[in-house]
Design a protein that fits this description.
It is a single chain. It is built from four helices and ten strands, in the order βαβαβαββαβββββ. It is of the alpha/beta class. It has a single domain, classed as Purple Acid Phosphatase, chain A, domain 2, CATH 3.60.21.10. The strands form two sheets. It has a five-stranded mixed sheet, with no helix packed on it. The radius of gyration is 14 Å and the shape is globular.
């Protein structure tokens, strides 16, 4: 199984950049996780063309905050994956997020706009970074999570 992971798109509407990004990197994924800060409801409606699961971010409009939960947990095969946006300073973010869940194999988060793909005490922390349009961020990125006999993350610089 291959999961596309995206966060912090910060788009009020669907743009050619987002359309191209999705077709280029997520064309053959089984599922897309969005870790918050889509901003516009139109973006969520567009992403539903893929099988998408999402959580609300601190910059999302009220329509998305009413529609999406703050956090989610998925069982995919033998693995449990938590999905949350995050809050506050980027410093210490993973430490604040970890107590929100228990029994996970992977914690997917956003908010900091800084990509992360590392294990700590058996838990994979995975942040795809920000998928904002090139020029809006100095580094844009997305990610993939591969599930087979083990769970691994892959970061993709845009």
């Amino acid at each position: 199984m291959k999961i596309g992971v995206i966060s912090d798109t910060h788009l009020a509407r669907v743009t050619p950049w987002l359309e191209q990004l999705m077709e280029t990197y997520f064309k053959e994924v089984d599922l897309v996780l969005h870790a918050g800060d889509m901003v516009g409801l139109e973006v969520y409606q567009f992403l539903k063309a893929w099988k998408v699961e999402a959580v609300q971010g601190n910059m999302d409009g009220s329509s998305l905050r009413e529609l999406l939960p703050r956090k989610r947990v998925f069982s995919l095969g033998a693995f449990r994956i938590g999905l949350i946006h995050g809050w506050g300073s980027a410093w210490g973010l993973e430490g604040r997020l970890r107590p929100e869940f228990s029994g996970l194999d992977c914690l997917v988060y956003g908010h900091s706009h800084t990509a992360a793909n590392h294990r700590e005490e058996g838990l994979l922390f995975f942040n795809p970074g920000s998928a904002a349009e090139a020029g809006l961020r100095s580094r844009s990125s997305v990610g993939l999570i591969h599930l087979n006999d083990r769970l691994t993350g892959e970061l993709i610089q845009l």
